[in-house]
């Protein structure tokens, strides 16, 4: 089973960015833990701060991988392009968010990803990614 986690803008700063909202663990450490725990999965990771690079990656993996776990971060709320890419590909996408976006500013309540996601996992901290992974398994 081939799964990729795709993270959007500013998520490269996890661990140091607003730790009260996003926690104090770096994504690299978390991701290595996931890889060690789920040894039967071929788990990949991609992060970009650039909208077009996220679209390119979705197109690249979106017809061959078994699952995509996507946290498009702020682009979730703004990017019709990423939303369209999720619609265009055949690999199922699970949308995840670390924080409960519905408990935050109203501009975070809208998502251009959700209408075409297989499912949505929001607000469980980094555990959101693991829950998404388990749902693919
Ligand atoms: C986020 C929520 C977004 O609103 C925000 O822009 C992020 C992270 C989350 O995982 O909680 O960068 O996607």
Automatic annotation (TrEMBL):
Keywords: Amino-acid biosynthesis, Aromatic amino acid biosynthesis, Lyase
Record-listed E.C. numbers: 4.2.1.10
Keyword Lyase: yes
Superkingdom to which the source organism belongs: Bacteria
Single GO BP term: chorismate biosynthetic process
Pathway listed: Metabolic intermediate biosynthesis; chorismate biosynthesis; chorismate from D-erythrose 4-phosphate and phosphoenolpyruvate: step 3/7
Entry annotated with the keyword Ion transport: no
Alphabetical list of InterPro entries matching this protein: DHquinase_II, DHquinase_II_CS, DHquinase_II_sf
UniProt-listed PROSITE patterns: DEHYDROQUINASE_II
Active-site residue list: 22 (proton acceptor), 97 (proton donor)
Residues marked Transition state stabilizer (site): 17
Single annotated GO MF: 3-dehydroquinate dehydratase activity
Catalytic activity: 3-dehydroquinate = 3-dehydroshikimate + H2O
SUBUNIT field: Homododecamer.
Family statement: Belongs to the type-II 3-dehydroquinase family.
Summary of the function given for this chain in its UniProt record: Catalyzes a trans-dehydration via an enolate intermediate.
The protein, known as: 3-dehydroquinate dehydratase
